[in-house]
Predict the 3D structure of the following.
Amino acid sequence: MEKINTGFTAYLQETYEIMGKIGLLLVSGDTGSSNVMAIGWGTAGIIWGKPIFIVLVRPSRYTFGFIEKKGEFTVNVPTQDMEEIVTFCGSTSGRDRNKFKEKNLTVLPAKKVVSPIIKECRIFYECRVVHKNNVIPAELAPDIPPDFYPQGDYHRVYFGEILAAYKNKQKFL
Ligand SMILES: Cc1cc2nc3c(=O)[nH]c(=O)nc-3n(C[C@H](O)[C@H](O)[C@H](O)COP(=O)(O)O)c2cc1C
């Protein structure tokens, strides 16, 4: 039986804790042009015999076009003290501002994908989109509040195969 690489599970507890407290940073693009946004929803597990990180991105986000074009993204787990940066990345659009520059975020090449990682973060997941689908309004349970979608901007759900998952040694001293 082919073994599934479950190395990514080592970092999930911390990833979920930070996601719940302040959010994570999702980057898509390439070394020449990329964008960062905050994400507060996501999960990781095993599907199709592969380690998968699932993220949900609304079509209105500038980042959406990057993921559609590149078919890749990185999930970057910030440190607690980066809350203000995450809030900024989650409330301004890369269409109008260079968020990396304004918040002194250093873009570094990733190992397995062309979408970069953010040096200041603690944990990284490099993902290749292997499936995507859309949230289907008619299939949402009645207890999911409609306030999530006042403008009908239903998320696209991206299933990213985790090609690499690792920590930033400098942040674990
Ligand atoms: C903590 C936090 C979590 C967020 N989570 C998501 C998310 O999971 N999916 C999403 O589409 N937008 C989410 N957002 C909103 C986007 O990050 C926000 O609209 C951002 O400005 C989009 O940037 P962009 O236009 O440069 O892509 C979140 C915002 C914050 C502050």
